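Good morning,

Attaching, inline, the backbone tokens for the sequence recovery test we're adding to the shared suite. The designed sequence is right after.
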């Protein structure tokens, strides 16, 4: 079965073209990073894939089914850039249960899905808390649990590590690495993309500029700089002074 297929996708706001003929094939279970400067069209692409926006032209199919704008697609879960846009219930349990309840599942199934999603994301100790009292990292994992409870086969992460401290970011990276779903990640955190994705698509001016392995694309200084990005630090050759090398040797 095919995964996500995007064919010649165009989208414009009045007087402003945003997506200019994007075509992509992404296989089931692939983890793909979408990188590019601000305004490249990443979020618009995601909202088109979710059926939130209606493209001017082009087609999107997911698992051989057409994505129809305005219709709920249970196979797709979008984790918003800002968890506060996603969390609005009085308790964490209510937030995680919101999707399954709205899918019309029997209450026993909803409880089981909440239980599984809570265990998977490690937020069991937060279940009775009010989401707006949580830290950024906790909110992020609650938002992810709410998506997981709907059991989507494609999860889209828009800037997932924004405003996370180091420990929360590391936990998120481990979580995404262990995920079985097809995953799309848009992030300016290129080190995260390097760790969680096996494929990277560079987007600029609403078009696919490059598509390949994270190392091939993100270590290409000229390509990255041309499109307003920097090579991730970990892909740069490290040049130490003698003093620094001695310092490391003593550890």
């Amino acid at each position: 079965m095919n995964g996500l297929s995007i064919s010649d996708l165009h989208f414009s706001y009045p007087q402003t073209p945003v997506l200019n003929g994007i075509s992509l094939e992404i296989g089931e279970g692939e983890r793909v990073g979408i990188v590019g400067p601000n305004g490249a069209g990443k979020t618009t692409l995601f909202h088109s894939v979710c059926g939130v926006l209606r493209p001017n032209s082009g087609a999107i199919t997911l698992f051989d089914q057409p994505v129809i704008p305005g219709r709920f697609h249970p196979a797709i879960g979008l984790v918003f850039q800002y968890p506060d846009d996603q969390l609005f219930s009085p308790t964490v349990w209510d937030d995680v249960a919101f999707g399954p309840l709205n899918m019309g599942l029997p209450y026993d199934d909803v409880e089981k899905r909440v239980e599984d999603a809570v265990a998977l994301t490690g937020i069991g100790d937060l279940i009775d808390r009010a989401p707006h009292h949580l830290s950024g990292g906790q909110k992020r994992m609650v938002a992810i649990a709410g998506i997981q409870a709907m059991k989507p086969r494609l999860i889209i992460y828009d800037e997932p590590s924004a405003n996370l401290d180091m420990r929360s970011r590391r936990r998120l990276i481990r979580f995404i690495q262990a995920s079985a779903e097809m995953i799309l990640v848009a992030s300016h955190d290129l080190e995260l993309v390097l760790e969680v994705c096996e494929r990277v698509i560079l987007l600029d001016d609403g078009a696919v500029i490059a598509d390949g392995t994270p190392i091939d694309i993100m270590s290409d200084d000229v390509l990255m700089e041309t499109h307003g990005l920097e090579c991730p630090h970990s892909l740069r050759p490290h040049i130490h002074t003698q003093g620094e090398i001695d310092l490391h040797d003593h550890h």
